[in-house]
Prior knowledge:
Layout: H1 3-18, H2 31-36, H3 41-60, H4 65-80, H5 83-97, H6 101-109, H7 115-136, H8 141-166, H9 185-202, H10 208-233, H11 238-259
Helix pairs in contact: 3-4, 3-8, 3-9, 4-7, 5-6, 5-7, 5-11, 7-8, 7-11, 8-9, 8-10, 8-11, 10-11
Amino acid sequence: MSRWREERAVFLLAVQFLTRLPVRDPDLWSPARMAAIPRWFPAVGVLTGGLMAAVWLAAGLVLPPVVAALVTVAFGLLLTGAFHEDGFADACDGLGGGLTRERALEIMRDSRLGTYGAAGLGLMLAGRVAVLAALGTLEGGAVTGAVALIAGQALSRTSAVAAVATGRYLRDHGTAKPVQEGVDRPGAAVVATSSLVVLAAAALWLPLGALAAGVGGVVLGHLLMRRAYERKLGGYTGDCLGAVQQCSEIGFLLGVLAWL
């Protein structure tokens, strides 16, 4: 198989892993391809962010900003199957309710939603709706919100890949097990290139100060969540990666809004 066809297969497998988009190719999966999918996580973020941006722009033509924001966030949940949100909620439950490392991991294995998870997830979703709606009220806010959605979705997944590349996976099985080997040098180059292309494209619409503030928000969200789970657990699980993505995405949106 040619290199291009192989990378296409890895990208489609990444889409299949991170979203509910219909990728129906039974020959995609292999252990080697699963280990390679993190390199395409930012690109999948561009895809999901682009679809959400299209919904945001369309909804904004007929609905007030806050309702358009609600519709857009709801569409994003359907698009990904609330994949990252589920991880964030489980991480909130485990880190909030587990007094010991073992108890925290046990709680995070439990599929039931607890108080910490419900509160955290509710605040996260409300925050994304509120920030997007606030962006929509600014001059040129429709386009600003669309660009922020795409960049936020992509760069927050870069943040999750960074957590994989520099962290230690804790479980013998789980959703993050296939990508526990981290990111090799070619994969890191793909992630870096994708992220730089996203930043360069976003800079065509967003003021550089706002873009820098958004990147600062990504970094801050990444560091705060990593500090929380590494102090309690000593490494990451799949839920922790979802939490990193969620905190990094809201960090980007908040940074852009705060600057503007």
